[in-house]
Design goal:
The protein is mainly α. The protein contains nine helices and two strands, in the order ααααααααββα. α1 runs antiparallel to α2 and α8 packs antiparallel against α9. Helix content is 74%, strand content 1%. The longest helix has 57 residues.
């Protein structure tokens, strides 16, 4: 309807123009009046254009391309929404993975940081939390055990020597003394196997103990030989064994052993006092 009205208006205007030409261009005032009348007729036939905006009509069928164009934005919008959702999910997934891996890595880093500290921190205790044993004390304990065995044959040796002097049980005395000499030799062998490098004055201590036990073993063997001599004819006189060179060598070796034992006892007692072990006199070595 809007277009039909516009066509009628145009025809009116053309007709008015034709009349103006036929009249031989009437004066401006008359032409203006005619034109004004033409415009008024046109306006009466064709309403103002504003009416078209107030009564919108559905588009004719030939404007289908515009419909198709209008449908396009919704599809693109949906694709944009899908893409945005996908990107959002990807970001969320990456963020969650980062948080998970970051948390695990943080714990691992904390553990790694703490382990070197635990490893480099000086400790005085073992795995059970107890202080490590003093290596010097451990050596002193082992040596103390050896010294305790060194006195086992002392009483037997004293009794054997007394028997020889009184010419009593000479064979038994000789056997006892030889056994004692063997035991002194075993003490020296055991001493060589005991670690004493952490003990104070360990070199002098081991030297004095070795000298004492070797000298004692020598004395025992000489006294044993004296017993053998005393058992022979005229070896004893009036219930007393005759003095022989073996007896003299025995006494000399015994004196050397006594001096070495005194030196060793002094060195040992200093160690024993420090670690609460048994102190010993020279006679007990």
């Amino acid at each position: 309807m809007g277009r039909a009205a516009a066509s009628a208006g145009a025809a009116g205007r053309a007709d008015a123009a034709g009349r103006a030409d036929a009249a031989g261009r009437a004066d401006a005032a008359g032409a203006a009046g005619d034109n004004a009348d033409g415009r008024g007729a046109a306006e009466a036939v064709c309403p103002p254009v504003q009416v078209q905006m107030q009564t919108p009509q559905a588009p004719p069928p030939h404007q289908a391309p515009y419909d198709a164009y209008d449908d396009e934005p919704p599809r693109r919008s949906r694709l944009g929404i899908i893409a945005a959702v996908g990107i959002g999910l990807a970001v969320v997934g990456l963020g969650a993975g980062y948080l998970i891996s970051g948390t695990g890595g943080g714990d691992g880093d904390k553990k790694d940081d703490s382990e070197p500290i635990a490893k480099t921190t000086p400790t005085t205790g073992g795995g059970d939390g107890k202080p490590d044993a003093d290596p010097a004390k451990a050596q002193a304990v082992e040596l103390d055990k050896l010294l305790a065995d060194s006195n086992n044959s002392r009483d037997a040796v004293i009794g054997a020597v007394a028997g020889i002097r009184g010419c009593d049980k000479l064979d038994t005395a000789a056997s006892t003394l030889r056994d004692a000499a063997r035991q002194r030799g075993e003490l020296v062998t055991r001493l060589q196997k005991v670690a004493v490098d952490k003990l104070p004055n360990n070199a002098k201590l081991t030297a004095e103990l070795t000298k004492a036990w070797q000298a004692s073993a020598s004395a025992d063997n000489h006294y044993a030989a004296w017993a053998d001599q005393s058992a022979k004819d005229k070896g004893c006189k009036h219930g007393h064994a005759r003095r022989t060179p073996e007896a003299a060598q025995g006494d000399r070796a015994s004196g050397e052993a006594t001096l070495a034992k005194k030196q060793a006892a002094g060195l040992w007692n200093a160690i024993a006092g420090k670690y609460g072990l048994t102190k010993r006199s020279s006679a007990q070595l």
